[in-house]
């Protein structure tokens, strides 16, 4: 099985805001997020954000998409019938920062989203090429 991602030029807009909320929203269309959700977000301390969604308190944190990466919201218009069938996915929006929200608790270092963002930086370091002379120096020094 292969996966093909197509991102049309209409999907690129650097002003998009993305909110990752801890619930399922069974709506696939426009919503007045700026008017009813963004307008009520409050900054609580250095990085923590608070708001509510349908009366439920949410605590969140914003993250930039790491340098060299582009965030893409994807949509699969037709699910394959078998695992061997190719998948065709379309990027419908891009974003350069996002806010993730927890229900009833502040963001912590144990949150999977934060760990994922930390892993990107860790992976760059551990997978970068090692120069021969620097690796030999570390062996000799130990």
From TrEMBL:
InterPro entries registered for this protein in UniProt: RNase_H2_subunit_C (IPR052863), RNase_H2_suC (IPR013924)
Signal peptide: none
A single BP term in Gene Ontology: RNA catabolic process
Gene Ontology CC annotations of this record: ribonuclease H2 complex
Origin superkingdom: Eukaryota
One Pfam entry name: RNase_H2_suC
Protein name listed in UniProt: Uncharacterized protein
Species of provenance: Potamilus streckersoni
């Amino acid at each position: 099985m292969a996966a093909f991602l197509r991102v049309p030029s209409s999907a690129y807009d650097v002003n998009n805001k993305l909110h990752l909320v801890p619930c399922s929203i069974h709506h696939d269309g426009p919503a007045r997020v700026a008017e009813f959700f963004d307008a009520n977000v409050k900054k609580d301390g250095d990085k923590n954000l608070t708001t509510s969604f349908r009366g439920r308190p949410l605590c969140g944190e914003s993250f930039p998409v790491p340098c060299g990466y582009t965030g893409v919201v994807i949509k699969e218009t037709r699910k394959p019938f078998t695992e061997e069938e190719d998948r065709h996915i379309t990027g419908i929006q891009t974003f350069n920062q996002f806010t993730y929200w927890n229900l009833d608790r502040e963001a912590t270092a144990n949150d999977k989203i934060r760990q994922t963002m930390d892993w990107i930086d860790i992976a760059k370091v551990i997978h970068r090429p090692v120069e021969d002379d620097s690796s030999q120096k570390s062996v000799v020094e130990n």
